[in-house]
Write a structure and sequence with these properties.
Length: 229
């Protein structure tokens, strides 16, 4: 690699592979990632996609740091993190969430939808649903269990369609008039825009859930879903 060029962005199916120099000091590596994604921001545009890390074994703390470098210097919203060297596939957002997600084996048992849900491509599931993209305007998702959206929600999401009041809908942002849990429905409009080189906090995933028979929305990092088994 060229001097001070410690990362290379490669394409892969439905995502990107970020090769990381195995010998670079981590601070220098982060600066290189920031520069690369700032330069490539117009090329990628506003998109939700998975990222694979290769070439270097990194800790979960380093993984979070690199993800922040990418998201703060581009309009990319990272959905899944794939560590090629450790053969791991992780929901990037779950790195900081409660064990509830793992105890329910959501990623193993849920119906997984690759890409965004668009109008005319409605999704229904007898269990939970994981969507590796967005729920577009006028699209519809219904699940007996939970709905986990790696991108944003502009369409309709109905979790707990058979009356399960402990179900939830989680997403990076909500801009929808039609979010339902069991028999409760409400509109949630709280879209945030991330700007290039913004010093603002990156988007934080949120969950819509029932509390005392009222729909609530709260960031997942606040423990919104803890204890909801």
């Amino acid at each position: 690699m060229a001097n001070n060029d410690y990362c290379v962005i490669k394409s892969m199916k439905d995502g990107i592979n970020l090769y990381l120099d195995p010998n670079a000091p981590f601070d220098d590596l982060c600066r290189s990632v920031c520069r690369r994604f700032a330069e490539s921001s117009d090329f990628f545009g506003d998109v939700a996609l998975p990222v694979m890390f290769s070439g270097r074994v990194i800790s979960e703390e380093e993984m979070r740091g690199i993800c922040e470098c990418i998201e703060l210097n581009s309009l990319i919203r990272i959905t899944l993190v794939i560590d090629e060297d450790l053969n791991l596939v992780k929901d990037k957002r779950m790195l900081e969430l409660s064990d509830r997600f793992f105890s329910e084996n959501i990623l193993e048992n849920a119906k997984v939808v690759t890409g965004s849900v668009k109008p005319g491509r409605d999704v229904q599931s007898d269990s939970s649903v994981v969507i590796l993209g967005d729920v577009k305007e006028d699209a519809k998702v219904e699940a007996a269990g939970n709905i986990i959206v790696m991108g944003g929600v502009k369409g309709s999401c109905h979790a707990g369609v058979r009356g399960e009041k402990k179900a939830f809908v989680s997403a990076l942002f909500f801009d929808s008039d039609d979010i339902s849990i069991a028999d409760k429905k409400e509109a949630f409009h709280e879209v945030q825009k991330k700007k290039l080189f913004s010093k603002d906090e990156p988007l934080q995933p949120k969950a819509v859930f029932l509390l005392e028979n009222e729909l609530m929305i709260e960031p997942l990092k606040n423990g919104a879903l803890s204890g909801r088994k």
